[in-house]
Each structure stands twice: as structure tokens, then as C-alpha cells.
Design goal:
- The protein has seven helices and no strands.
- It has 194 residues and is an all-alpha fold.
- It has two domains: 32 residues; 125 residues.
- Helix 2 runs antiparallel to helix 3 and helix 5 packs antiparallel against helix 6.
């Protein structure tokens, strides 16, 4: 397209808006940015490594080996079903018999889990302490049953850990097997009349 003679030439087209020129960056800020990026990458790498190392080790107080958990799940389900199906009621002799049957179900679970291969039990350190807690619970229940046979109407005393907490809390936290309420409250109907 030609321009008529005598007119000034068309100005070249201009964009409607042009960004301002970039501000000059001092070399010091460049170094700060590089150092911050490197430190961030190192921190993320350290956190990932720590996470992998922590979860690859046996967690203190928690049973987390999948093979042990499978065995626990089977034994715990059988024990819980058996214990919950035995009601504590009647005379002192009847109550003691029911308590003994419940305790036998617990001790059967403990014996079966203690019979796991040594390598499997060693792979999950809290297992033996957890089983010891079940035996301590049964021992306290047996003391309560002896009091019943002696004609006493005492209160069942739950064993406590070194921090003074009742052991059932540690037992529930450690494994995938909650302590049935009927073991925690060995009274007729689960209610103490003392």
C-alpha cells in the first residue's frame, strides 16, 4: 500500500501497553536466592530421609509388623468374641467361673501369640510387653475373683503403668486389639455395686 505524496509517513505500530523495564538486581540478591534454594532442597531431602528412616524402624510402643498384626487380628477376634459371649452374673461361685472362662480366653490368645516364631516376635519389640500387660490384667482379675470367693465385695483394681495410667490405655495404643469392656469391668452386668 502506497502513501499519498506530501503526507508524513505512518508511525510504526505501537503496542497499547509496554511493561516497565526490569529493575536492576544486585549480585548479592542473586547469591541469597541461590543459597536459599540449595538450603530448601537440603531441608526437604533431610525430612524425606528422616521420614523413611523413622518408618523403617520399629516404632516404640506400637505393634506395626504386618505379619504380627495379622496373627494378632485373628487371635484378638476369637478372644473378644469368647469374652463378650460369657456373661458374669449369679452367685459368687458363678461369677468366679465366668471370670475364669474369660481369663482362659485371654491367656489362650497370649499363649498363641507367644508361640509365634522368634524372628517374627523380635521384629516387633512391643509385642512381648503388650502380652505381659494382658497377663497383668488377668492377674488383677484373678485377685478380684479370689476376693469374691472369700466373701468380699471389693472393687476391681486395674494395674497401672510406670506413669500411673491404667494399662488398658497402653494396650489399646500399642496394638490393633482393644481390651473388651467386660475385662475392664468384671462385675455382674459390668457394674460394680461396691
Amino acid at each position: 500500500m502506497s502513501q499519498p505524496p506530501g503526507l508524513p509517513s505512518y508511525p510504526p505500530p505501537q503496542p497499547a501497553w509496554t511493561p516497565p523495564p526490569p529493575l536492576p538486581v544486585r549480585r548479592g540478591w542473586l547469591y541469597v536466592t541461590i543459597i536459599a534454594t540449595v538450603l530448601s532442597a537440603l531441608a526437604i531431602g533431610a525430612l524425606v530421609t528422616l521420614n523413611v528412616v523413622m518408618w523403617s524402624k520399629d516404632q516404640p510402643g506400637i505393634i506395626d509388623d504386618p505379619d504380627v498384626i495379622d496373627a494378632m487380628d485373628t487371635e484378638c477376634s476369637l478372644m473378644t468374641f469368647t469374652v463378650d459371649s460369657i456373661a458374669v452374673y449369679g452367685s459368687a461361685d458363678d461369677q468366679v467361673d465366668a471370670l475364669a472362662d474369660q481369663d482362659a480366653a485371654v491367656l489362650s490368645m497370649v499363649d498363641n501369640l507367644r508361640a509365634l516364631p522368634d524372628a517374627m516376635r523380635a521384629s516387633d519389640e512391643p509385642l512381648d510387653a503388650w502380652l505381659d500387660d494382658w497377663e497383668a490384667l488377668v492377674g488383677a482379675r484373678q485377685d478380684y475373683a479370689e476376693n469374691l470367693l472369700d466373701g468380699e465385695r471389693g472393687v476391681f483394681t486395674m494395674p497401672r503403668d510406670d506413669d500411673g495410667d491404667e494399662i488398658w490405655m497402653r494396650m489399646d495404643f500399642a496394638g490393633y486389639c482393644e481390651v473388651p469392656e467386660s475385662l475392664l469391668f468384671p462385675y455382674p452386668g459390668g457394674v460394680s455395686d461396691a
